[in-house]
Design brief:
By secondary structure, the chain is mostly helical. It is built from eight helices and no strands.
Length: about 200
């Protein structure tokens, strides 16, 4: 029983350390809003500037925690990696139709997966997460402020995304208790409902 909980304990530790580093980095670079530092700080702040991004990324962590190993680390690794590809497409000007709808659907469907405590094959879960990551990445890429470093900006939003996944994983550790499973399913339902709103706004 004790051994079964070790991966979750490590995940919680990584999550807390990642979030600590996130805030330390912001504090350390706050005085240097020029050049590479500006791009990194802008990237750090971009994923948390929209509730649709925040909820979808936390939902990835929640779902990974529900599924357990290896999904608990595979999904939060898959999302930033594929998101970086989407960001590259946005940075170089490759159009991607329906970005806002895709982001809204990501919150809707990922929240629904958590609410239903869905357990598909790990490959299917990774493909689903990766598919939506492209839309999130593209949205970040096209919003690079003029004159800032695309590389450091990208590093910044990848770090911030990892922190949001870590928050989801840490919250998701309550899944080990019966009340926690119910709470997570309720949280997933709330994210899915928010996703309905995001999609409606994108279509309006």
């Amino acid at each position: 029983m004790k051994k079964a909980r070790e991966p979750h304990s490590r995940a919680a530790t990584v999550g807390l350390l990642s979030c600590t580093l996130f805030f330390v980095a912001r504090a350390a670079l706050a005085h240097g809003q020029t050049g590479a530092a500006a791009g990194f700080l802008t990237g750090l702040g971009h994923p948390v500037s929209g509730l649709d991004h925040v909820l979808a990324m936390i939902a990835v962590g929640l779902w990974g925690a529900q599924l357990g190993a290896p999904a608990i680390w595979l999904l939060p690794v898959t999302f930033p990696m594929v998101m970086a590809l989407g960001a590259f497409l946005g940075l170089v000007g490759v159009p991607l139709p329906g970005v806002e709808i895709g982001i809204g659907l990501s919150a809707l469907l990922l929240g629904a997966m958590v609410a239903a405590e869905a357990r598909p094959k790990i490959a299917i879960a990774a493909v689903l997460v990766g598919f939506f990551a492209i839309f999130h990445g593209h949205a970040h890429g096209v919003e690079l402020p003029p004159g800032q470093s695309g590389l450091t900006y990208s590093i910044g939003f990848v770090v911030a995304t990892g922190c949001l996944h870590a928050v989801g994983i840490t919250i998701g550790l309550v899944h080990r208790w019966p009340w926690g499973r119910l709470a997570l399913r309720g949280a997933g339902a709330a994210v899915a409902l928010a996703g309905v709103w995001f999609v409606w706004k994108a279509l309006a």
